[in-house]
Amino acid sequence: MDADFAVIGLGAMGSMTAWQLARAGASVIGFEQYGLGHDRGASAGESRLFRMAYHEGAAYVPLLRRARELWQDLSELSGQRLFHPTGCLSIGRPELPQMRNVLASVDEHGLDHEVLDPEQLAARYPQHLVHDGEIGILDSGGGVLRPEPAVLAACAQAREHGARLLPRTRVTAVRYEDDRVRITAGGTEYTARTVIFTAGPWSEQLLPDLAPHLTVRPLVLTWFAPAGDPADYAEDRFPAFIRDTEGVHLFGVPVLDGMSVKTGFADVFGDLPDAEAYTRDLDERRLRPVGEAVRRFLPGLHPDPLRYAVYMEGYTPDRTAVVDRLPGTDRALVLAGFSGHGFKMAPAFGRIAAELALHGGTDLDLTSMSATRFPAPAA
Q: Model confidence over 268-309: pLDDT tens digits?
């Protein structure tokens, strides 16, 4: 037996899972088809938002609390600044479902926050052009994560605790037996007691039964230069933000590279037939709606992006991840379909995966993330 646990895919979820398993004393082997910290999947982009007051619902707050503690833990262990506590500012009309969820999060869980009326919002954060009736909710526990260093730090911690990680080693077959799993990767066969699938947008290739419920979509991020002093958009003056105005969902982070503000839209760039259809190229015309949103809502930025980058993510129909045992076998776990909002919770999901693998359960409610919640495909 090569290891107790094999982890397939070493992006955010896989690296955190390998770290937590190895930290608990388990023997771990991990496979990654590209280099560690690569820029193709969902664990890249130089910065990612962290939010405690959650647009997707207050039920996520316990996960987010655990994740924030583990982000701090990983930062201290690695000696790197992986989390920037800028706060996260939600902007929109208070009656919007997203804003109601943010308010429910802070009310139900007693989160540190501040509600800004339109006048206060415009005065404190003049970088944003406030529309009639819009308020701001400043989530004091929010901030910005650095994804590539975070993945590398988790991999380094896993290795420090004895994990064997194999970059540039693509898994081509997984076969289950009564007492083990056989994994073919890079032309070599390996065995483990349990396999954990954390393959991001490649999950549908490895998990055919789950594939009908997973869709691969490009994540497109853009960077814009301030017309004036970049210091006006520094993290001490310009929190990470999410804005929902007139049907536009725009998010962004402060200047971290000394010259540009990163922004992005949620999944509006269509679907990919599969992960192999990924391309870094994008027709410039498809970026124009982002530039138009920047012109309308962030008038102090040049509305033409300095650069853009394309990544990938796997989505489920209900935009809720699958975190569960794989149906049909007791030798596999799956973490997939995080639908563009999983990275911030990655260390918590890594801990959960380790608890499921080692102890068969976790103290957090994963009912909504069941692998069997989807209807069976029609005959």
A: 788 999 999 999 888 888 899 999 999 999 999 999 999 999
3-state secondary structure of 192: strand
Residue 217, both tokens: 């979509």
In degrees and rounded to multiples of 5, residue 77 shows phi and psi of -65, -40
Among candidates 45, 88, 48, 38, which has minimal Cα distance to 71? 48
Residues 110 and 16 in one domain: no
Same domain as 306, residue 236? yes
pLDDT beyond 90 at 216: yes
Whether 121 and 239 share a structural domain = yes
Query: What is the gyration radius of the CA atoms in the chain, in angstroms?
Result: 21
Residues near 127 by beta carbon (within 8 Å), at least 6 away in sequence: 232, 233, 237, 238, 298, 300
HSE on the CB side for 168, CA within 13 Å?
A: 1
Look up the CATH number of the domain holding residue 197: 3.50.50.60
Which residue, 364, 343, 344, is CA-closest to 353? 364
pLDDT digits (tens, 9 = 90+) for 10-43: 999 999 999 999 999 999 999 999 999 999 998 8
- Let me know whether 128 and 222 are in one domain: yes
**Residue 378 in this model has a pLDDT that exceeds 80:** no
Q: What percent of the chain is predicted at pLDDT more than 70?
A: 99
Q: With beta carbons less than 8 A apart as the criterion, state whether 166 and 154 touch.
A: no
Residue 27 CA to residue 224 CA, distance in Å, equals 45
Contact present, 234 and 260 (Cβ < 8 Å): no
Q: How far apart are the first and last CA of the chain?
A: 39
Contacts 24+ apart (CB under 8 A), 289-296: 289/265, 290/220, 290/222, 290/250, 290/263, 290/264, 290/265, 291/222, 291/224, 293/248, 293/250, 293/263, 293/265, 294/224, 294/250, 294/263, 296/129, 296/248
In angstroms, the CA 317 to CA 315 distance is: 7
pTM of the model: 0.96
- Residues 55 and 289: their CA atoms lie apart, in Å, by 22
Host domain of residue 345:
3-43+148-213+318-369
Judge whether 198 and 335 are in contact, CB under 8 Å: yes
